[in-house]
Design goal:
The chain has 513 residues and is α/β, with parallel strands linked by helices. Helices cover 36% and strands 18% of the residues. It contains 15 helices and 20 strands.
Length: 513
């Protein structure tokens, strides 16, 4: 049994973490987290819906006819730092010396196509003019100019892009000014998340970036309001200290910092289920901060979002009707079968083979449990070789089969059969989610009740030159939503436009024509 000192307990109290939670995390480290067991990939006609054009139009009509009666919210995880976008450019500053080597020779020696593309197409980046006017172009050396350009972009005594959150970088160039992903999210929200000309957005951000977002809203808000005739109510939250997880040594003892305190680490984006749980709306749209597009594509993205929201409303209406019927406890065998069929065919719920052997009372309780859950409609794009998670049918330790979004880290790479299923998946998760978080009475679900705590990750890290084990909470759209009712829908590839590296800004969906 691990003993915590009075100072340890004091540290826990300050972070809002219970002693029991810490001891439980230590047990998770000791036991390990089992891999997810893939049953098969979800494909079109078996876990993924492919909609016809006429069906899409019908779903858009459902949403547009009801949207004025609903409360809508766009939820955007936006704490990601921009530094990872510029990984190759940081290496360039570290390894290139314009005084001793020609730029072309360096690029050829490094054989880095990403850097080569960056410098070849440097004038196409939205920030080119801003950086260029800040550096004196009085040098004879192309290499020196390149070095000074990147330094001015990234370093603290320049524009300091490396410090910025990704959401506040210039992504798109509109004539004489640039626009951030934050502003693009406002514009997009006006298209599908506005009620009575007001759109509500919630951004989860790092605490130290709050002033930057507030300042950007002062400039961008009026500009977007004028263009869209929409007012914006923007709120923010930070990842809670209480969701940080304890780090341990390789022997599963609490990792102690040099000052004697316990080492805690952020629990990953799965911690944001607590932030999401505090939001109150009939429909919540979830989309990552870097997944934005320029105006030529934005109308198509808005249309796609309305389709997903219409499907949510359609299936939710049926689920609410059946949930109400079950709640009255006055139901015949034919109705019971009808509800079970609806759950199987439209909400992808799977029942154990032994279900028919249960008493009617037991079957009713199972149906009530299955139907009274949050619902998520998840857009899925065709797999183009992007790294990350996708849609799968999985089987849990109790034999229950369900639809889940699974990341590669959750799969046993040593199991050839499991890896074959994972690699042969046809679709990819772009984080394009529409959530229904109320029950048939209009009461909000406590989303923390639908988390599978066994779907986290354990990884190895280092601190002060010492190895440690870190625990990442179940991902927001992975284990944190494991017990939701889930529908996967094929959506067009143009809905997925993340900016993982700076060169992604050169793609057509980020170039204003």
């Amino acid at each position: 049994m691990i003993e915590l000192s009075p100072l340890d307990v004091q540290q826990l109290q300050k972070k809002g973490i219970s002693k029991e939670k810490v001891l439980n995390q230590i047990e998770i480290f000791k036991e390990g987290i089992p891999f997810v067991r893939l049953e098969k990939a979800a494909i079109v006609s078996d876990g993924i819906i492919k909609l016809s054009t006429s069906r899409e139009k019908s779903l858009i009509n459902i949403f547009e006819n009801l949207e004025s009666l609903l409360s809508l919210l766009k939820f955007v995880p936006a704490s990601g730092a921009a530094s990872r976008m510029f990984k190759s450019l940081y290496k360039f500053l570290e390894h290139f010396d314009p005084a001793v080597e020609d730029l072309e020779v360096f690029l050829k020696r490094q054989n880095n196509t990403e850097l080569k593309t960056f410098f070849e197409k440097i004038e196409e980046f939205p920030f080119y003019e801003e950086v260029q006017k800040r550096i004196k172009n009085n040098t004879k050396s192309k290499g020196e100019l390149a070095y000074r350009f990147v330094s001015e972009m990234l370093l603290e005594d320049g524009l300091n892009y490396g410090f910025y959150p990704k959401g506040l970088l210039p992504f798109h160039k509109y004539g004489k000014f640039t626009i951030t992903p934050f502003e693009e999210h406002l514009k997009e929200a006006a298209g599908y998340a506005a009620v009575n000309n007001t759109a509500k957005l919630h951004f989860t951000i790092s605490e130290n970036h709050h002033p930057l977002f507030a300042e950007t809203l002062k400039i961008a808000g009026p500009r977007v309001t004028k263009a869209t005739q929409t007012e914006f109510e923007v709120t923010y939250s930070n990842q809670k200290p209480s969701t940080d997880t304890l780090a341990v040594t390789l022997e599963n003892e609490p990792f102690v910092n040099e000052d004697g305190s316990l080492l805690f680490r952020p629990g990953g984006h799965g911690a944001l289920i607590e932030n999401l749980n505090e939001q109150n709306a009939d429909i919540i749209f979830i989309k990552n901060i870097d997944n934005v597009v320029v105006p030529g594509v934005q109308d198509k993205v808005v249309r796609s979002k309305k389709i997903l929201a219409g499907l949510l409303l359609e299936v939710q209406q049926k689920a609410f009707s059946y949930a109400d019927l079950l709640d009255r406890n006055d139901i015949n065998g034919e109705q019971l079968h009808e509800i079970k069929t609806f759950l199987e065919n439209e909400l992808n719920v799977r029942f154990l083979d032994s279900f028919s052997s249960f008493s009617i009372a037991e079957q009713l309780e199972i149906l009530k449990d299955k139907i009274n859950r949050p619902i998520r409609i998840c857009g899925m794009v065709k797999n183009e070789g992007e790294p990350g998670g996708g849609p799968f049918w999985i089987r849990d330790a109790h034999g229950h089969i369900s639809l889940q979004i699974v990341e590669s880290a959750q799969v046993d790479t040593a199991d050839e059969g499991q890896m074959a299923i994972f690699k042969n998946s046809t679709h990819f998760n772009p984080v394009d989610i529409v959530c229904g978080v109320r029950n048939f009475r209009g009461e909000k679900y406590n989303l923390l009740n639908y988390v599978d705590t066994k779907q986290g990750f354990i990884s190895k890290k280092t601190k002060d030159g010492k190895e440690l084990k870190a625990l990442e909470l179940p991902g927001l759209w992975n284990g944190a939503m494991a017990f939701w009712n889930t529908l996967f829908v094929e959506v067009p590839l143009f809905t997925f436009n993340p900016v993982k590296t700076v060169n992604d800004l050169l793609k057509p969906t980020h170039q204003v024509t």
